[in-house]
Amino acid sequence: MKKIILSLISITFSLMLQSQGIIGAWEGSSTSKNGELLKTVVIFSNGYQVATTYDATTGKFINSNGGKWKLEGNMMTEEIEFHTDNPDLVGAQVSFKVRITNDEIEIIDRNSKLKRLDNGSPGKLQGAWLMSGRIRDGKTQLRDTSKPRKTMKILSGTRFQWIAYNTETKQFMGTGGGTYTTKNGKYTENIEFFSKDDSKTGRSLKFDYELIDGTWHHSGLSSKGSPIHEIWSIRE
Fold first, then answer.
1. What range does the domain containing 81 cover?
2. Burial 140-175 (b: 16+ CB within 10 A, else e)
3. Is the pTM of this model over 0.85?
4. Which of 1, 5, 34, 232 has a CA positioned 20 to 30 A from the CA of residue 159?
5. For the segment 186-195, what is each residue's pLDDT rounded down to a tens digit?
6. In the listed set 86, 118, 150, which residue is the last one of a domain according to the structure?
């Protein structure tokens, strides 16, 4: 009996280490039919992930999908919450074999590889967050994050991406992402793609940020130049 228990503990610990090892940002590349170089960035946080492809030169958005994930042995299973190419997949589970090393993920069935960009550090805001409120004219307006309409932001150690979508209607409203830094109370986004407006590519937006009782307060000027004060809660 002791041997069985120890074996189960060993397997569980091994799976935990493997899952933790995938946390962070990963990058792959491919070529479009017209010869453009495409970049794919995948961000894994604790339990949630997003994969996005865009033109490596112009930043033109190509596609994005993501949702929940779990890893059991070499089998990755994703529960899709949004999918720009095939919305009918929203709510479905997709499984595929992977081979993971410290610096590479190989998706065996698809014969594709991703190289590690970071392991979740040094980002102070690493994780999956849901927009849970705003402050307007000094008044706090909270949002129910359990509803199907969500705005999620996933951050690794160096990469960020926000996604607006609805799991009930399977509608995808928009996304943007790139690299970010957190220094001296300032959170800076360097935009590499923006699904609604390619002209935003290359811009840097600087915000004040503060962690208050586990929530992330994010204030400054939006990409449209409008003042914002958003409240984000870590996604469980």
1. 23-118
2. eeebebeeeebbbbbbbbbbbbbbbbbbeebebeeb
3. yes
4. 34
5. 999 999 999 9
6. 118
